[in-house]
Structures are given as C-alpha cells and as structure tokens.
Q: What sequence folds into this?
C-alpha cells in the first residue's frame, strides 16, 4: 500500500487519521473498496470483467479511483464502462465522466450521444443532465449538423 500516496500521507503525518487506531472509509460500499484494495495489491480487478460488469459498481469504482488519485485504475474503469454504454445509461456515464475527470469515457459518451441523439434525447436521464453538459451536447450536435427526426 506504500505505492498508494494518499494512504501513505494519511499514515505518515499531517492528517488526523495518522493518530487514529483505524481509518474509516466513508461514502463507498465494502465491495467497491475491497476491489480498490485488490487493485492496489495486484493491479487487477475482477469486478471489471465485461461479462459480469455492473455499471453501478464500475462507476463507483471510478469514483474511488478518482478520489484517491489512482490513475491506472481510473483508466481500467473507463475502458470497461465504455463497452457498456447504452441509450438509457449514457447520460449517467457522461455525468460521472465529467465529474470524475475521465476524459476517454467522456469523449466516448459524447460520440455515442451524437450517433444516437434522437434516441438519447427522449430519455429522462438526458433531461436530468446538468445544464452545462446539456448545453455542451446541444452545441456539439448543432455544430455537427445532427438532425432529430420527428414522427
């Protein structure tokens, strides 16, 4: 774990956690944090297997990797998540990619939305996008001349 700089700083000084008998990790499920620790020790995460991927798990793991500055795990999460983009989940993935500074995932989500704009536009998750992202997507669609058919 010494290669995990945030924990090293927490244990070696400057943080209130360095004098505590245990470190409490909040905001993450046990399963997600266990996978995070697995990656730190082995450079592998079994939970990112495309055949059994849970999008919620992968997005949560991406959030942990971002929070604790583990770029290699962020990249693995981005690659796995990109393979599971659908019309229904692309807005959630795009929001997470934007919040978690995941540029490859963000770019892939943008491309997916541009290719399926009419379908994505009709989803509730699209309507729930943060205003800045919604504006950016609409501007990009306009710049590309994306057309939406009406019936």
A:
């Amino acid at each position: 774990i010494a290669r995990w700089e945030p924990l090293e700083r927490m244990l070696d000084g400057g943080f209130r956690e360095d004098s505590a008998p245990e470190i409490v990790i909040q905001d993450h499920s046990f399963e997600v944090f266990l996978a995070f620790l697995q990656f730190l020790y082995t450079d592998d995460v079994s939970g990112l297997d495309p055949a059994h991927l849970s999008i919620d798990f992968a997005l949560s793991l991406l959030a942990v990797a971002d929070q604790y500055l583990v770029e290699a795990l962020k990249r693995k999460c981005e690659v796995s998540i990109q393979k599971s983009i659908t019309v229904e989940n692309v807005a959630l993935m795009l929001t997470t990619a934007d919040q978690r500074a995941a540029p490859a995932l963000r770019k892939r989500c943008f491309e997916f939305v541009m290719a399926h704009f009419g379908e994505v536009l009709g989803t509730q998750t699209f309507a729930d996008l943060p205003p800045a992202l919604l504006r950016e997507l609409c501007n990009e669609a306009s710049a590309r001349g994306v057309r939406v058919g009406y019936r």
User: Anything to note?
Assistant: The chain has two domains: 1-84, 86-151. The CA atoms of residues 33 and 93 lie 20 Å apart. Residues 1-84 form a domain with the Potassium Channel Kv1.1; Chain A fold (CATH 3.30.710).
